[in-house]
Specification:
The chain has about 325 residues and is an alpha/beta fold. The chain has helices at about 5-10, 30-35, 75-90, 105-115, 145-155, 190-205, 215-230, 245-255, 260-270, 275-295, 310-315; strands at about 15-20, 45-50, 55-60, 65-70, 90-95, 120-125, 175-180, 205-210, 235-240, 300. Helix 5 links the parallel strand 6 and strand 7 (about 175-180).
């Protein structure tokens, strides 16, 4: 079922959803099941599965020269989506990226998803890999997410890259895209970021999922600015319970979001990560209750492979 249909079916009730990472290469899917099982009691209508592109490492040879090696740290997004739908009878939503994909790769990826009965995708540009200073698209791929959204919509209309193909079947994907209440790190301003977000909607995106935030006011202001810009699709808030002292620096650095001063002070007072975890759970419960009272369609949690704190939040909210 499409995300937009799940919203209609819920008739105004806020639903619980979450996002998972594929396991590291060499690990099996059991670790995924172990993190998901405790969360299925809250009846998520869908589960997002991230996609991680290839990266490069350089190994020194005996002659002193460097040899380039391609590595995949977290393969398996399509297989995981198929397994989740089969095991849990839940909609699984794969992320698809511009980075590392040719347009032909994207088309074949979408065809596989369509064969598996997957109704939704989240279309993202993707981040620069560690060997890049700035994001670099594949020479035969897309540079921006709105171009990727457009390709998905073209396939929904039955238009394939090979125009000579006859009697084509149309796909019917519902398309999600990302939004940044505190702006994307590469955007010069929030207004310019929303300008380009609108291009993704105009290309055919059906809903927005936000980057994590820890101040609900940022989300509410973002929604208002989107409406002022003529963006009227559902905007799903993304949340993550704070968990460790290390995250005081890691979250602002990696995700380019601000931490409220009250949260920072509460974390600093804690004696250990167990106490910090409890602070993070309580903070996320407050966020969740306020957002739920505001009538958001979903509360979408970033699990990062951990589910115990998200379960604690869900038990208090749902």
């Amino acid at each position: 079922m499409k995300v937009t249909d799940h919203i209609k079916k819920a008739a105004g009730l806020t639903q619980f959803t979450f996002e998972i990472l594929p396991p590291l290469k060499g690990q099996n899917i059991q670790s995924i099941y172990e993190s998901i099982d405790p969360l299925m009691d809250f009846n998520p209508p869908f589960i997002d599965v991230t996609y991680h592109r290839e990266e490069y490492v350089y190994k020194e040879l005996s002659n002193g020269l460097l040899e380039k090696h391609v590595i995949r740290k977290r393969p398996g997004t399509v297989g995981i989506c198929a397994a989740l739908q089969h095991k849990y009878n839940v909609d699984a939503i794969p992320h698809i990226l511009c980075g590392g994909f040719t347009k032909e790769d994207t088309e074949n990826f979408l065809i596989d998803l369509d064969f598996l009965g997957i109704d939704n995708v989240v279309a993202l540009r993707g981040d620069a890999i560690k060997s890049e200073t700035y994001f670099k698209p594949h020479k035969d791929g897309h540079t921006f997410a709105n171009e990727l959204v457009n390709q998905v919509q073209e396939l929904n209309k039955g238009y394939y890259l090979d125009e000579e193909i006859l009697n084509t079947s149309k796909t019917d994907f519902c398309i999600g895209v990302s939004g940044y209440p505190e702006k994307h790190m590469e955007a010069p301003s929030l207004e310019s970021d929303i300008h380009f977000l609108k291009k993704k909607i105009e290309a055919g995106a059906n809903y927005i999922v936000t980057q994590m935030f820890f101040d609900n006011q940022k989300y509410f202001e973002f929604v208002d600015k989107c409406k002022e810009a003529g963006i009227n699709v559902p905007i799903i808030p993304g949340l993550k319970p704070f968990a460790t002292l290390k995250q005081l620096n890691a979250i602002p650095q990696r995700f380019h979001v601000d931490l409220p001063e009250a949260l920072i002070k509460s974390v600093i007072k804690c004696k250990d990560n167990s106490a910090i975890r409890q602070v993070g759970v309580e903070w996320c419960i407050q966020q969740s209750n306020e957002l739920k009272a505001a009538g958001v369609p979903f509360l979408h949690y970033y699990s990062m492979g951990k589910s115990d704190n998200i379960k604690a939040v869900a038990e208090a909210v749902f």
